[in-house]
Amino acid sequence: MIPNGFAEVLKNELKRVDDASVTKRNERVIETFEFPSGRAPRAIINGKQYVLFNANDYLGLRFNEKVKAAEHDASQKYGAGPGGVRFICGTSAVHVELERALAAFHGRDAGMVFSSAFALNLGVLHALLKGQSKDSLVSSNVLVVSDELNHRSIIDGIRVAGLPSEQKAIFKHLNLADLRRVLKENIGKYARAVVITDGIFSMLGECQDLGALQQVADEFSSQYPEGVLTVVDDSHGVAAYGRSGRGAEEATDAKCTLLIGTLGKGFGADGGYVVGDRLVIDYLRESVASYIYSNPVSPGTAGAALAAVTLVDSPDGKKLLEKVHRNVERFMAGASKAGYTFAAASSHPIQPLLIGDAAKTKALVAELAASGYLVTGINYPVVPKGKDEIRVQLSAAHSDEDVDEFLAALAAAGKKLQITA
Ligand SMILES: Cc1ncc(COP(=O)(O)O)c(C=O)c1O
């Protein structure tokens, strides 16, 4: 039983959330999926069919037969759950194989898999910014520099590390001149700097120029006794972006100190991962609490992820990457023709349509849902006032007809709601 006093507080808090129209708890329940031949899977919600243009499954791998079969095989072999944390219960060969495959895919020595990229960021940032115990030789005499629009898990990871405010700096979104300014201003003050950024930004689909960012870090590295580390979280970029699905690093010709990704978007499975030099990964395995004291993904999920990594790195994966990018081009051309403008330049499967008005954004999302299409409306405070957008996410699972029919619905709704001319 909740004590009356606290129950009253919670009721008021939920009312506050609802009154502010930022409710998230009333999630849509997908009853099942239907699989029309040659078309994207249809989600069935309250008995009605929907085509998803709001999912992160950029290559359609969550329904891939090979990926699902690998999940089944791994759980038959190792069980439905991992049985406990790895340093106590041991680890399944499938987890080790997955880590090797991820490291090889990204051209690194070693990798580590976590239950989620969110949990990873909370733990890894703490370990990079601060030693885990009072005996640790890793000092917290560090400056962390973060892009102003970084994902919530990065913001929280920095928070959890608990550094004083002068050790936390933000550079303007995608503005490497500003990053340069911050690194220059702090020379001589800290043992090391850690620059952290999203690779692909999830709200607008923009890509950080990691090649140029790495150059800025290299320029200042000798001016910090322990150097300048670069950390990229490319959760939306991996298995979605770059010629062979290696994400923002591939697209901008870069190799950061650490690359973080999720297995739960383009790879179609679940879990988070980090790859880098063996020395850093060995340190992280010794020090990251959300790895040491928390279960890994289930063996089945690791098996599915391993099959997905193998698939992405094969001619079939190439075909899926080409297909999603053809869908992106088809969508961009069709949406422009229908009179829409884009909230940012993105060649990623995340395509943001600028609506610029909260009420019209809401109405457009509802109108599209009535026609059987799900997209995400994004309003202030997630984006600045007047920059309200709908985020459309393309997938290789969408057929040409799926994209064309969606564009027709989008054009009709735009006219009806006087969003487009
Ligand atoms: C940049 C970034 N990092 C981390 C996450 C969280 O990933 P996961 O679902 O694996 O926790 C997301 C997902 O929204 C993301 O966009």
How would you describe this structure to a colleague?
- This protein is of the alpha/beta class and 421 residues long.
- It folds into 2 domains: 22-52 and 315-416, Alpha-Beta Complex (Aspartate Aminotransferase, domain 1); 65-312, Aspartate Aminotransferase, domain 2 (3-Layer(aba) Sandwich).
- Helices cover 42% and strands 16% of the residues.
- The strands form 3 sheets. The protein has a 7-stranded mixed beta sheet with strand order 4-10-9-8-7-5-6, sandwiched between helices. Strands 1-2-3-13 form a 4-stranded mixed beta sheet.
- β5, α6 (152-161) and β6 form a beta-alpha-beta unit.
- α2 (65-78) runs antiparallel to α12, α4 (93-105) packs parallel to α12 (299-312) and α7 (176-185) packs parallel to α8.
- The radius of gyration is 22 Å and the shape is globular.
- The structure holds pyridoxal-5'-phosphate (PLP).
β-strand number: 15
Q: What small ligands are held by the chains?
A: pyridoxal-5'-phosphate
Radius of gyration: 22 Å
Largest sheet: 7 strands, mixed
Residue fraction in strands: 15-25%
What overall geometry do the principal axes of the alpha carbons give? globular
The level of helicity is 40-55%
Element order: H for helix, E for strand: HEEEHHHEHEHEHEHEHEEHHHHEEHEEEH
Q: What is the overall number of helices? A: 15
- How many domain modules? 2
Low-confidence blocks of residues: none
User: What is the CATH domain class of the largest domain?
Assistant: Alpha Beta
Concise description?
The chain is built from 15 helices and 15 strands.
